[in-house]
Amino acid sequence: MFGKQLVTDMISRSAATGADRRAFLRTAGVAGLGVLGTTAVAAPASANGKKSGGGGGGGISDVAILNFALNLEYLEAEFYSRAFYGRGLDDGLTTGKLNRGDVNGGRKVQFKSKLVRGIAEEIANDEIAHVKFLRGALGGSAVARPAIDFTGAFTAAAKAAGLIKDGQTFDAFADDTSFLLGAFLFEDVGVTAYKGGAPLISSKTYLDAAAGILAVEAYHAGAVRTVIYTDGLADAANKISDARDSLDGKSDLDQGVSQAGGRINVTPVDGNGIAFGRTPQQVHNIAYLNPAQGVRSGGFFPAGTNNEDARFTTT
After folding, report:
1. pLDDT digit string (tens) for 193-220?
2. With contact defined as beta carbons under 8 Å apart, do 155 and 169 qualify?
3. Which of 197, 224, 281, 285 has its CA at a distance of 20 to 30 angstroms from the CA of residue 312?
């Protein structure tokens, strides 16, 4: 694996185009930065595929899919709740099956922009509501909040994107700009996760709920992307997009907030105007900040995500 200094130097070398950055990042891998002790293991030959209320996709249960979504909602809710309210989720919203973890980092952002502050408040309330809704839908099957690390993971992600140099740190709660870039890292992943997971859901009731949450996540992403563009942060966001794209496989799916010629790109879609989706494994590659297969922890989830179906915890 590449050494930390080599990776940092090459990323910081300012590749001329997004394509160049993506190609390099895929070759080196964010894992080359020594991100938070990620652990690569052999992919499981089988997983708990007990059905509960349907479950398509070769024995994948709707419960497993919803718990996969709940892990991501925990992450987003903790981020936005801390950023706006200065506190995390109530303890009663973090219990459940498997091990409950602590949250490292995060604090109230001293917003200067009324617009950014308003967006943060609205998204925080929506994400907290999503956690409550999914926990209610899952009942006793809901998993507990996994351990979350904002401090180390944001720094590693920013370093991989070339936003900071070796030895520097990135605090997504430092100011409006840092918050927006941190939010950008999450929002597009949430949209593509729901898009990719929706076809696996058997229950029409659950599918309807997932579609509703997907729409909200897309609204969030559109708002964040628009403000980032108007605030002149497109270049930084595009570098995050490149780094994110380097983690989820060989395909070039991710899109920044601006296109050739500086045109705004609020909606990352294909030629048919359709948004793309990511598999649960691709989502975990991004959340773990590691492009390798068979990884079970790292990045924002230092102890992995919680799910009794290993297909929804492993890359």
Report:
1. 999 999 999 999 999 999 999 999 999 9
2. yes
3. 224
Backbone angles phi, psi at 149, to 5 degrees: -125, 110
Contact 212, 204 (CB under 8 A): no
Question: Rounded to 5 degrees, what are φ and ψ at 256?
Answer: -75, -170
Q: Please give the pLDDT value at position 252.
A: 81
CA pair distance 292, 186, nearest whole angstrom: 20
Q: Which domain holds residue 105?
A: 4-312
Give the pLDDT mean for 151-157.
97
Write out pLDDT tens, residues 16-42.
445 544 554 444 444 444 343 333 333
